[in-house]
Design goal:
Length: 145
C-alpha cells in the first residue's frame, strides 16, 4: 500500500510539473510571437536593401511583391519576388533562388536584376556549409555596380 501511495504522489508531481512547464512554454511562445515576426521582417528588409539601397528607390520593397511559380528556379512551388521602383517604374526585381548543389545542401539566395538586365546584387540567405570553411560564401555576397 505504501508503494502505491508513493507511485501516485510521484505521478501527480510529474503531472503538475508537465502542466506548469507546458504552460510556461505556451506563454513564452505567445508573448514572443510578434517580436519574432518583426525580427524576421527586419532581417528580410535588411537583405533586400543591401541589394537595392533604400535611398535609390521610392517604394517599400516588402510591400511591393509578386508571386513567382518556377520551382526549378526558386526551389519552391511559389516564391515572393520584390519590386524596387523609382518614379513608379520598376527598376529592379529581387527574387529568391536556390543553388541546389552546395557541398552539404542547397544554398538559398536572393538575386537582384535591374531593368536593363544587369545584375543588381546577390545575397546569401541560408546555407549548411562547413563552419569556418564553406560559410565564407556569405562574404562573397555582392552588389552589382
Amino acid at each position: 500500500m505504501e508503494m502505491l501511495t508513493a507511485i501516485r504522489n510521484s505521478a501527480a508531481g510529474l503531472g503538475i510539473f508537465a502542466v506548469v512547464t507546458a504552460g510556461a512554454i505556451a506563454l513564452t511562445q505567445i508573448s514572443t510571437e510578434q517580436r519574432i515576426a518583426d525580427n524576421i521582417k527586419e532581417q528580410q528588409a535588411k537583405a533586400l536593401y543591401e541589394i537595392v539601397p533604400r535611398s535609390s528607390i521610392d517604394n517599400e520593397l516588402l510591400n511591393d511583391t509578386l508571386i513567382i511559380r518556377k520551382p526549378e528556379l526558386t526551389g519552391e512551388n511559389e516564391a515572393t519576388a520584390f519590386r524596387a521602383r523609382r518614379n513608379g517604374q520598376v527598376e529592379t526585381v529581387i527574387m529568391p533562388v536556390v543553388a541546389p548543389d552546395g557541398y552539404t545542401g542547397a544554398i538559398s539566395l536572393i538575386v537582384g536584376i535591374n531593368r536593363d538586365e544587369s545584375l543588381a546584387g546577390v545575397r546569401v540567405l541560408a546555407h549548411k556549409e562547413t563552419p569556418g570553411l564553406g560559410d565564407k560564401v556569405e562574404l562573397k555576397s555582392q552588389t552589382g555596380s
